[in-house]
Amino acid sequence: AQRVTQPEKLLSVFKGAPVELKCNYSYSGSPELFWYVQYSRQRLQLLLRHISRESIKGFTADLNKGETSFHLKKPFAQEEDSAMYYCALNSGNTPLVFGKGTRLSVIA
Amino acid sequence: DTAVSQTPKYLVTQMGNDKSIKCEQNLGHDTMYWYKQDSKKFLKIMFSYNNKELIINETVPNRFSPKSPDKAHLNLHINSLELGDSAVYFCASSLRGGSGYTFGSGTRLTVV
Asked: For residue A73, what is the DSSP state?
């Protein structure tokens, strides 16, 4: 069965500090992984997908199949990055499975 | 133009009532979903549906039923509402087998 684990419920960092939001997954096949962001009381928005290997709003994430991880990183946090971040896994034929989310709080 | 729209945005109702939440997408997607986000912000799949197949999460009570009049709509009907049903419900859509989900803005349901 697919599983996505985000070990941190809350991550607080100072503005300008580096950020790393952790995500580990469990899936026997070839996964497709995503990061979604939810700003306060808004809809979920796609932030990154691993296949596109792009950087959005300064965030990057690399799929590490050996460690079954897809950590989200940003070198310098900004206050507007404060939000809920969800890691998600797509196995193709079943709906997207989400981790429990990490609330990022960037302190001025 | 809103790609995935849900109505109502807020719904406050009494225990025991029956209510529906509507969802419409104009993206030409063939698969739609309902997710529940609880008070701890956990997101859990409730249903996925395309014109051929309904997949139900087995943990969803049968008081919840999806209704799809056509490919662009997937409504959520809830019977005999309970306090524990209070949550934010998100509709989403995608192409079957495709990976990009587009979410609606959510319906905040409060059962009193």
From this structure: E
Query: CA-based diameter of chain A, in Å?
Result: 43
Contact A43 B48 (CB under 8 A): no
Query: Would you call B56 an interface residue with chain A, using a CB distance cutoff of 8 Å?
Result: no
Per-residue pLDDT of chain B (112 residues; tens, 9 = 90+): 679 999 999 999 999 999 999 999 999 998 999 999 998 889 999 999 987 778 778 789 999 999 988 889 999 999 999 999 999 999 999 987 666 799 999 999 999 9
Preferred mutation among B30, B52, B56, B101 to probe A, highest tally of A CBs within 10 A = B101
